[in-house]
Amino acid sequence: MNAVYAALNLIFIVLFAPLLDGIERKVKARLQSRQGPPLIQTWLDLLKLFRRPNVRPRESVRWLFEPAPAIALVSVLAASLFIPSLLPGSLDTWGDIIAFIYLSTLSAVAIALGAFSTGSPYAQIGSHREVSIIMAEEFSLAFIVAALAASSGGLSFSRLFPLQLKVSTITGALAFAVMAYVAGARIPFDVAEAEPEIVEGPLIEFSGKGLGMLKLSIYVKRLLLTTILLNFFLPQDGTVRVLVYVIGLVIISVVYASIEAHYGRFRTKDAARFLKRFAIVGILSWILGVVGW
């Protein structure tokens, strides 16, 4: 039954992730006194991309460039199987927290490697920035996960959800909320793409279906991180979970979009410096978890 639930959750995630991005775009537009696109605009953009052919740059390394979008998308979709989302079921295995982190990181690495292979200076600058942010981000995330795992007594999502009310888990959950925002490549941390500066950086040389898969992988990753945050507090069973989960997704997306609408983009070194300093919160949470607080 868990496998069936995981498959249904996967379908929901693929369908709903672009809609959440549409909601965020609408909220940001309203806060900036604009009309904004319709809520389904992100889906319309993706469908348009999936109908167009891929164009490979002449200087690109084919065996790196062509599979990168598929690897990025498949990685986050595989990661989604470990997390209960709409329905309270997932592929429950020991160490699935570590598997999720590796798969979600693999998605970002695939995008960076695909961009490196193009030979485009804009893509390579964006990839360098992406790798810098990943390294700082994963350092902070490692301590946050360690803090939550120490409090729950294991490296499985089934033991982690819902959180036990402790000082370490509360600080860890708040820190994870910040990291979910950062890992979603939202302003001010979207230094890798930076549309006005390096024209979407790592994505600049991708087109058609490849670009569609890359964008969809970003939307899915955002939804998965928000789902983990909600699972910290939601009950794992009950019919009310479905309604509360969907409402929670929308509320958190609106909050994130509101924050994004009021900030300018960080410089790369400033974003990395913030994440390195923020790792102190994760370290403190881990220490509190180890001592049983």
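[next item in queue]
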Amino acid sequence: MIFKRFKEDIDAFLARDPAAQSRIEVALCYPGYHALLFYRLTNMLWRNNWRLLARFISSIGKLLTMIEIHPGAAIGRRFVIDHGSGIVIGETSIIGDDVTLYQGVTLGGVSPSIESHAQVNQKRHPTLANDVI
């Protein structure tokens, strides 16, 4: 199942990025795809309550790709990050299917609050529907 999802993600990059020439090129050379691999792994860990490990691996992914995706975010199928430097996707973000993001996008939370404890377990980040660019 998860390998089918990886292939589906690669095919989405091929369909939406005219510079992408092959699956192997996307798998080896696309930081947006690498960030998505880190996310898919860490989200699985997050959902199975391996949260510290998920955050640690997510931090490694951020260092390698310059793309920050919180493991708790909900991201749909065929998600593409093109030229992804500086993208930030927060914990309670929800992203539908067939979404494409470009560099510098921040799906950030509400402004910092003195009562940040009141924001715990609350929806704080944007939702993107299906087919958003």
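[queue empty]
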